[in-house]
Amino acid sequence: MVGTSFDRAFSNHQGLSIAVPHADNILMITPNFPPYAMAGAVRTGALARHWAAAGRQVHVLAAANPGALGVHQALEVEGITAEFLPIDREGAQAEAAPAAQPDATAKPDKPRSAPGPLRRILWDLQAMPDRYNPHWVARAADRGIAIARDTSPSLVYSSGPPNSAHIAAAKIKAVTGLPWISEQRDVWINNPYTSHHWLTEIFNTRLARRILPAANAFVGVTRSAVGELQQHFDAPVCLAYNGFDRQDFVPETDSVEAPTAYDPERLTLIHAGVIYAGHRDPRPLFAAIALLPREQAAKIRVLFFHDEYDYVTQLAKEHDVLGSVEFRALVPREEILALERRVDVLIICRSHEAKTAGVIPGKLFEYIGARRPMLAMGSERGETVEIIRDHGFGLASNDPQAIADQLLQWLEQKAAHCGRIPDLPEAPTHNFVRSLQFKKIDALIDQMLGRKAPQPETERAVA
Description:
Structural class: alpha/beta
EC number: 2.4.-.-
Number of helices: 16
Distance between the termini: 55 Å
Strand content: 5-15%
Number of strands: 13
Protein name: Glycosyltransferase
Enzyme class: transferase
GO molecular function: glycosyltransferase activity
Keywords: Glycosyltransferase, Transferase
């Protein structure tokens, strides 16, 4: 079934003639692109900006997903042309206006119960590998082929998930013959966070194994992802971390005075990402707060922007610390970045499952740029923990007593520095600047196109 639909997509493009590729043109395929991008999908817009700043013309084919509005601002950058294609069957175009923001003090709306296994299987079968296939994929492939005919890009660059981006890119390559780089922000095969039932995962893997071998090169965002890609494919694989952009924090880090403390009286911790019930677990923090004397516990506040199926609420009730836990509705990314600079501690929750040890949450690098101490819980193995511990970015532990002791230390630091814990040193952040990571992708592109590849900037020694 997959093969039939894949082959049928090319029937209208036989005999297509592509002009000589233009070395400075890139056709980017990614459903997640500002302003239609989920909270964690920062990389795609940042990469397009990086290329445009280098003088390249970037044509982006993305998805008009109304559910992803309200977090990122649209990019109005010279050199970037973005088209947002409908994802539904009828093809109705969504309004490209910012979504109204809910009350910041209200708890975010969410389903009250998780879907049952049968419903999950049916959902997976209807949308394989994701909801963007087949309607958005067909539109992206057709439009991409037309763009290739008109502008002669030098290559196709897909970024997923959603993995439908890779399907569309494979179709474009099959018709145009353009080289294709597949960037996997989460690996498609053996994704540790997959929600597929084992039966539908078989079909999902078969689809990936049919599509991805056509790629000329791959980009992975962690060492484990690179190893996974190298295991399954013969093409070159480049490691380029997500990194952070100094410009996101320049107004604060370059100022003489530090930002105003979010709450000078209470130690404020935030989890700025998404909580996946049963996978990302703040339980050790709640247990640590419960160990503190009542007077000290009253000085702790923990902010969350997501609570899937009331998971966080139930855990806080179990530990009798609900008075220290608050919920906020999702806000635009600019507000989150400013908040990360003002609060005291940034929380990372990771799964305990061994298969997720190599996953690096996208927020880690953003937190590094904010230069606030981190508290990481979950798996105590893998690149995330190594980066935090090796560079002095904070505490990685599941021991409630160790966390409680650290909370008391942070409270003392806060009191000794006029209500705000001092920023972490800047030097250890140098290796994680996004532009340095993206230069590795540039070198891969030059290598693939047969140009002399400039050497990426040498990573600076860390103090």
